[in-house]
Inverse folding.
């Protein structure tokens, strides 16, 4: 079986690292492709989900980091319930996203997905003056996202329709009273935990 | 019966009608919902995609509050929040090191941690309980005769297995409830396919594509409307039908139950929809 690719020792450690961080037994994947069969996003993915697992097994870190697949995975867990080896591929995808972010290697084409996630979480910390700690805030979030991407007009009509129906409050909810500051502290701890 | 209630951000904004209909239906079934004080957003996809600690700590904080309020059950109508809070509850019960760590941090911040005593649940699971589902039929004064629907469960309500309260591949709860309400439930193969919701803003193109497939398949199955149990599924399906020639309305299951109960406020809920369901309902003399 000399044609089968085998990972070298140092490459195998990449697989081990991702296995540990994602808590998923990546090395037991035998490429039955059941996960890919049910994946609703595979039509725009550069690599099928099981291909990413194979690349991890082979230690092809750069290829994995450059792929759009982890960024397009929506975490629907179809793969997770169908895998005969109990692998939750979406957790592997989340781990790859976190690693590429930590190493600052996000593919440029997917920067806006990362941006959206960051702004979403940021909006939970609340805004100066108007506040809103702890809750999602559609108007502020969409405004920031559009400002950061320069994409001002997409969904403008939808926003108007939503506002007309009283579905987009213009100011954020200020729900935290007695427990004010708890969310900010949680985010603060998250930041400290990430610092090397 | 009194139950803790975590509406989630969407039910206070984009899915206000789901909130109203759910409260109305619970009320009709003698179930009281007490909103969790000072709850926070669970972080959704943004949390679990970017930070392991936030992914656990944000949902867990709500469970700490629920326990402090002595709530035995917490009802979450948003599939995304339900999924994340249920998963956090699961990890605490399993005692994974990451969950223990997040719990410990919360103790420092909030003064107490979560002990795994709350039953995290979804309105669909609550209504399907034997002692409650029996009360549905007698309430149906306005059966949804002629309303052809397909139930759409999406992904986060049924997967992974530790959050599921129904079959993961072939859930039935909404099918059964819609039958009880008198609707004509159509069979289709896409009830648990994901709509790509979390990409709806950054990759709208992908979501248009998926929505087109889902709605086309619903129409092929003979449905005039889709029923959902999640504000995000509903919003994605309702707002991304651009390429569909004859767009179809997307309901929340509690709205249709409410209409079948003849609830006087039902028309107000319908007015909040982006795809107007009133013509369809009036043509069938249901509203
Ligand atoms: S279903 Fe599991 S074993 Fe099969 S290819 Fe996917 S991850 Fe590998
Ligand atoms: S969780 Fe991700 S990889 Fe798995 S089926 Fe869903 S989109 Fe595909
Ligand atoms: S997942 Fe969405 S609806 Fe649920 S709490 Fe978070 S922002 Fe609100
Ligand atoms: S909105 Fe889409 S991705 Fe989210 S739960 Fe519903 S089906 Fe799944």
């Amino acid at each position: 079986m000399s044609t089968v690719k085998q990972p070298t020792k140092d490459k195998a450690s990449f697989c081990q690292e991702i296995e540990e961080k994602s808590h998923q037994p990546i090395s037991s994947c035998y490429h039955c492709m059941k996960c890919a069969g049910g994946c609703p996003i595979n039509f725009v993915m550069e690599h099928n989900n099981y291909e990413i697992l194979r690349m991890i097994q082979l230690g092809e870190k750069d290829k994995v980091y450059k792929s759009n697949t982890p960024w397009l995975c929506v975490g629907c867990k179809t793969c997770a319930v169908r895998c005969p080896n109990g692998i939750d591929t979406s957790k592997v995808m989340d781990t790859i996203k976190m690693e590429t972010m930590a190493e600052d290697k996000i593919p440029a084409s997917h920067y806006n997905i990362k941006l959206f996630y960051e702004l979403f979480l940021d909006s939970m910390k609340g805004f100066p003056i108007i506040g809103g700690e702890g809750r999602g805030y559609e108007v502020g979030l969409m405004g920031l996202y559009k400002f950061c991407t320069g994409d001002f007009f997409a969904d403008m009509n939808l926003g108007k329709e939503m506002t007309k129906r009283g579905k987009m409050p213009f100011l954020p909810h200020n729900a935290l009273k007695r427990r004010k500051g708890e969310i900010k502290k949680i985010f603060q701890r998250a930041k400290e935990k990430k610092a090397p | 019966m009194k139950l803790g209630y975590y509406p989630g951000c969407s039910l206070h904004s984009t899915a206000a009608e789901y909130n109203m209909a759910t409260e109305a239906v619970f009320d009709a079934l003698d179930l009281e919902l007490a909103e969790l004080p000072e709850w926070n957003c669970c972080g959704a996809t943004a949390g679990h995609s970017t930070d392991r600690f936030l992914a656990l700590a944000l949902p867990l904080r709500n469970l700490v509050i629920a326990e402090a309020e002595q709530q035995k059950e917490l009802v979450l109508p948003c599939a995304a929040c339900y999924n994340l809070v249920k998963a956090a509850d699961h990890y605490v019960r399993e005692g994974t090191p990451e969950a223990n760590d997040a719990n410990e941090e919360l103790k420092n911040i909030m003064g107490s941690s979560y002990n795994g005593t709350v039953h995290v649940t979804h309105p669909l699971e609550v209504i399907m309980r034997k002692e409650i589902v029996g009360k549905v039929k007698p309430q149906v004064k306005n059966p949804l005769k002629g309303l052809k629907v397909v139930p759409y469960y999406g992904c986060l309500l049924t997967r992974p297995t530790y959050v599921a309260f129904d079959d993961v591949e072939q859930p039935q709860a909404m099918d059964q409830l819609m039958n009880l309400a008198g609707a004509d439930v159509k069979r289709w193969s896409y009830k648990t396919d994901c709509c790509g919701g979390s990409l709806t803003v950054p990759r709208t193109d992908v979501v248009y594509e998926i929505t087109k497939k889902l709605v086309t398949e619903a129409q092929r199955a003979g449905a005039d409307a889709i029923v959902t149990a999640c504000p995000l599924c509903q919003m994605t399906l309702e707002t991304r039908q651009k390429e569909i020639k004859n767009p179809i309305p997307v309901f929340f299951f509690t709205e249709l139950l409410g209409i079948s109960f003849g609830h006087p406020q039902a028309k107000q809920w319908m007015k909040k929809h982006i795809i107007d369901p009133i013509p369809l309902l009036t043509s069938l003399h249901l509203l």
Q: What stands out?
A: Chain B has a mean pLDDT of 93. The CA atoms of residues 48 and 55 of chain B lie 5 Å apart.
